[in-house]
Design brief:
Length: 360
């Protein structure tokens, strides 16, 4: 089987990392992969052992030239199937080019933002099938009128073995200039409105009343950074909140954490939550999108109403003050990801879709 994948991400995290896992797994099963990706992207380098990499200039939805180049690539390579993995032009031009070339196309949807029902029905009708990374996203599409037999949930995966490192608390304390007795909480997400950072920050003063040695790592970057730093000053919590930016050593940081908090208002699934669970870290998160498929309330963490700062206070405080509960929930999280979110399961489920819809 010959499959052409389209991924527009420049960095190797989130959706692009999932595509890399898929390419590696498909290659091991004998699939002939081709990858269309942006010039200079990280996945272009990492995927070369597992796919023929075709780097093309990409400028988003309005890039007609990318659509034309993609069509020429399809006519030259003649894959059995096209799999579009992202937005920013991949889904639009992937569908158009594949239809003109007479090749079936699948699309993976990774976000739970609602669309106008007429637009969703029109958009996804162009594909032979739609794959969602969570049941929550599938439910959004069904609610917008996309037929149930046109959508399959294939959960994102985590490389479990890569997240089994031993915690080095002395290192993390030195790295972020924390006291020796610190308890470290992290929020790992882009600094954008729908990730809900402000709700955690509003809860921190009350948390610190009970757990004065709690420190909060903000891992990620985004347009709200300045605004969120100002909020920390207003709340007088800036000495306990560390804006650490984008880090490429999360595999070293995560095992050192006591807790991950993800107060998102919307979330397709949340790869950082899978990584935290694989590390054995309990999670407190908003009951939004696909998050409840990772975080089982009272099992490997707690779910709270999105946008409610007050609801964050008790579960965060409880887990920081009760190390036995913390450890037990962390172990439950490991078992959940091993059972439901392995790379092998993700690759197998995509393969099943390919077998049904590829060009015969």
């Amino acid at each position: 089987m010959r499959v052409l994948h389209i991924e527009t991400g420049m960095n190797l995290y989130g959706g692009a990392l999932q595509v890399f896992y898929l390419l590696r797994g498909l290659h091991a099963r004998g699939v002939d992969n081709l990858l269309v990706c942006p010039c200079g992207s990280a996945i272009a380098v990492e995927a070369r052992p597992y796919a023929k990499v075709i780097e093309l200039p990409m400028r988003g939805e309005v890039d007609l030239i990318f659509g034309w180049r993609l069509l020429q690539t399809l006519r030259r390579e003649r894959p059995d199937l096209v799999h579009a993995h992202s937005r920013r032009g991949a889904d639009l031009w992937g569908a158009i080019a594949a239809r003109i070339a007479g090749i079936p196309a699948l699309v993976t949807r990774r976000v739970d933002n609602p669309e106008a029902p007429w637009l969703a029905r029109l958009k996804y009708r162009q594909f032979a099938h739609v794959i969602t990374i969570s049941q929550g996203i599938r439910d959004v599409l069904l609610g917008e009128g996309v037929p149930a037999d046109h959508v399959t949930c294939v959960h994102s995966a985590v490389d479990i073995d890569a997240w089994q490192g031993e915690p080095d608390r002395a290192w993390i304390n030195r790295e972020f200039n924390l006291p020796d007795d610190s308890q470290v909480v992290a929020v790992i997400a882009q600094l954008i409105e729908r990730k809900g950072h402000r709700f955690l920050f509003e809860a921190i003063p009350r948390i610190l009343e009970k757990v004065p040695n709690a420190y909060f790592l903000v891992l990620g970057k985004g347009p709200l950074e300045t605004e969120l730093k100002e909020l920390c000053k207003t709340l007088q919590i800036e000495s306990h909140v560390i804006f650490a930016g984008f880090r490429d050593d999360l595999q070293r940081i995560m095992p050192c954490l006591d807790l991950v908090v993800h107060p998102a208002l919307m979330e397709g699934l949340g790869v950082s939550l899978l990584q935290a669970a694989a590390c054995g870290i309990p999670i407190v998160a908003g009951r939004a999108g696909g998050i409840p498929e990772i975080v089982e309330d009272g099992v490997n963490g707690y779910l709270v109403e999105p946008g409610n700062s007050e609801e964050l206070i008790i579960p965060v405080t409880q887990l920081l003050l009760n190390p036995d509960d913390n450890s037990n929930m962390g172990q439950q999280g490991r078992e959940i990801v091993q059972k439901w979110f392995s790379i092998d399961a993700m690759v197998s489920s995509n393969m099943n879709c390919y077998e049904k819809f590829r060009k015969i």
